[in-house]
Amino acid sequence: MSGPPDRVDQHEAFVRLEREIGLLLRRARAISARLAGQLHPDLDGAAYGLLALLEDAGPLRAGDLVARLGLDKSTVSRQVAHLVDLGLVDRAADPVDGRAQVLTPSAEGSARLARIRETRRVRWEADLDDWPAEDVATLAELLARLNRLGEAREAEVRGPRPA
Fold it and tell me: What is the distance between the alpha carbons of residues 92 and 113, in angstroms, rounded to a whole number?
């Protein structure tokens, strides 16, 4: 005879979530630093995230990068200048406001990023080879939900954008 189903302790579930997310974030920072070095030996981890965001969501203004990445304006400015100097990011006049500039990955920046992402995808496939595809899809969806929540929380902290 089996007993009642195991109940999940809510407090312990959130303690474990905080611990696991913290570990994931620490690893992500180390991986970003390594990947930035693969993009170019002179780059740091923030540059990888910046280029990836431009590839996924660009073209963007520098202010959009500051808001989306949660980095200091001077850090983003320095990273952008470095990426432009290395030929990995292009600047152009904003078609909506010619006084502003928008940033996009250069052809070289996109190509380097694509190579790194393909290598990472192959690694994920190898690491999770024994996971059912449904579990991988569920993990991706749960992470997407968590990311949307984080983006919404960041938008609340930043407040409305000036017109």
Answer: 20
Q: Spell out a b/e string for 65-92, using b for 16 or more CB atoms within 10 Å of the CB, else e.
A: bbbbbebeeebbeebbebbeebebbbbe
- Could you give the domains of the chain? 46-127 (1.10.10.10)
From CA 62, how far away is CA 142, in angstroms rounded?
29
How far is it, in rounded angstroms, from Cα 123 to Cα 117?
10
Structure tokens at 115: 């190579």
For the purposes of burial, counting CB atoms within 10 Å of the CB of 129, is it exposed (0-12), middle (13-18) or buried (19 or more)?
Answer: exposed
Helix (H, G, I), strand (E, B) or coil at 60: strand
In which residue are the tokens 């991988």 written?
136
102, 89 Cβ separation under 8 angstroms: no
Mean pLDDT by 10 residues, the chain (163 residues): 70 95 91 88 87 92 85 89 95 86 96 93 94 97 92 75 52
Using left for φ > 0, alpha for ψ between -120 and 50, and beta otherwise, residue 87 falls in left
Name the pTM for this structure. Answer: 0.79
